[in-house]
Amino acid sequence: MSIATAPPLPVTLPRDHSDLVVVGAGIVGLAHAVEAVRRGLRVTVVERDLRPVGASVRNFGHCCVTAQRGELLDLATRSRTGWLDAAARAGLWAPEAGALVVARSATELAVLEELRDERGADAVRLRTRDEVGDALGRTADERGDLAGGALLPADLRVNPREAAPRLAEWLAEQPGASVVWGTNVTGVESGTVHTSRGPVHGDQILLCVGHDLDRLYPREAEAHGIERCRLSMARVEAPTAFRTDAAVLTATSMLRYDAFTATPSAPALRAEVSGHSAELLDVVANVMFTRMPDGSVLVGDSHSYDATEIPFQDEAVSALLLREVARVLGVREVRVTERWQGVYASSARGPLLVRDVAPGVRALSVTSGVGMTLSFGLAAATFDGSLRATA
Asked: Cβ(22)–Cβ(208) under 8 Å?
């Protein structure tokens, strides 16, 4: 599960003028570059690191389509199509495995039933206790705490360690496209990206730098209230019987995503979780997990917000999340093989920052933790003109 190796040095800048210069080789930037290539444009991606190491490789690899609502649902649905197309082009692992939402109480099940009533039985497929138990790998006598669940078939899975690196590799192989690694952007103006290796020129410039927008445009980042959200995540050995590629979500997941929180039973669910697991709410937990192609499982996560993230991980928080994951899986404990700190852009003022900072220069950040989900939908909306900049 190692991330792709760094490209060979020395790094050279493209000589030709590009139609589009993308700053940032995270998934949002790469999705726009892929869409630009698909439309026949010349594109250059400039990335300060020698490989993707940010939010795009530190997540669950879950394209969380169904749990979105309103504009974000429309973008996520478009993104699903884009992901499948990109997966076919670049050879990505992207199974249409869906997401399994586990209900362990009548209140949790009521939220899922209400979402089914709103979206329809094809979009939200209710599951019995035994069907959920089978998917989790629990034996028949280990299902007493299960009430049922729901499969959300529109959700996709990708391998976060491989998706962005492979898309970058594919882009670099395309005529008229280049990816410039290890090159820090020091400033931007119309038509030109100034870098530590010299200028890069393009008709349009797109800044897809996530929470690091404050490094280039601090006023715009501050106006949108961008903070860095810090996550506790881990990779664990999967129980032998756990084999589903579906993302597994729980009650805390239902408290985070708008499609669930808009249901009539959502307030009762929050009160219920507060009553029996207040410590999970204290760390703003989203207890969920996803199985990787090698069989290991990515688990998490907690959320902590600040303008500058601290590097220290609280072991008590990690232990709390691991215990809860083990309970959902129906095992005594899970064995950790790797830990890391996730980070993404967050804002209480809205899920997206889309701002034209100069003629032909647009900043675009997903500020709600669903960059993997929305990436290709945002790219499609950018190029067809339906993604409007805010003042």
From this structure: yes
Tokens read off for 254: 């239902």
Strand partners, 343: 230
| Rounded Cα–Cα distance for residues 156 and 84 (Å) | 9
Q: Residue 301: is the preceding peptide bond cis (ω within 30°)?
A: yes
* Nearest Cα residue to 206 out of 343, 379, 377, 376: 379
Tens digit of pLDDT for each residue in 229-273?
999 999 999 998 998 999 999 999 999 999 999 999 999 999 999
Nearest Cα neighbor of 47 from 24, 18, 13 is 24
- Cα four-point dihedral sign 115, 117, 120, 122: positive
- CA–CA gap between residue 41 and residue 44 (Å, rounded): 10
Are 335 and 40 in contact, with CB atoms under 8 Å apart?
A: no
pTM: 0.95
Q: What residues contact 55, with CB distance under 8 A and at least 6 apart?
A: 26, 27, 210, 211, 342, 343, 344, 345, 371
Within 8 A by CB and 6+ apart from 46, the residues are 21, 22, 23, 24, 180, 183, 185, 193, 195, 200
3-state helix, strand, coil in the chain (%, to 5): 35, 25, 40
| Those residues with Cβ within 8 angstroms of residue 107's Cβ, 6 or more apart along the chain or in another chain | 265, 268, 269, 272
Listed in sequence order, the residues at least 6 apart from 165 whose beta carbon sits closer than 8 Å to its beta carbon are 3, 4, 51, 52, 57
Which residue is listed with tokens 């190491």?
53
Q: Give the H or E element holding residue 23.
A: strand 18-23
Q: What is the pLDDT of residues 53-93, one digit of tens each?
A: 999 999 999 999 999 999 999 999 999 999 999 999 999 99
Residue 49 makes CB contacts below 8 A (sequence gap 6+) with: 25, 181, 182
